[in-house]
Write a structure and sequence with these properties.
112 residues; mainly alpha; 97% helix
Length: 112
């Protein structure tokens, strides 16, 4: 009977030892999982930071593109005004040339 009791206690000890080893393995794996999750969390934080930097850069580029667009519109308007001024100058030059011709004819009439 003592022998059976000793055998039973030995089996219980081996079972507890096995359970302890399994628990230790589970703790080790849990620590590895925790470390992996912390690494993932850090990577996600880096991605979020990069996305924020990209969003800020896109916003700045949009503002610059808008400014460039406005400058192009202003340049186009200035070119249109310059073209109109050139046409007015051309018309005035033609009128002046015509008046010069008329003056020459009038002056020629007074010559003896």
């Amino acid at each position: 009977m003592i022998s059976r009791l000793q055998n039973g206690v030995g089996a219980a000890v081996r079972a507890m030892d096995s359970s302890h080893q399994m628990a230790s393995g589970t703790v080790s794996q849990s620590q590895q999982v925790q470390q992996a999750l912390e690494n993932i969390l850090g990577a996600i934080g880096s991605i979020v930071d990069q996305n924020q930097q990209i969003a800020a850069a896109v916003e700045q580029q949009t503002a610059v593109a808008h400014d460039i667009d406005q400058n192009i519109v202003q340049i186009n308007r200035a070119a249109e005004h310059t073209t109109q001024g050139a046409h007015q100058t051309e018309d005035a030059s033609r009128q002046l040339s015509s008046q010069v011709m008329e003056l020459k004819q009038l002056i020629g009439a007074f010559r003896v």
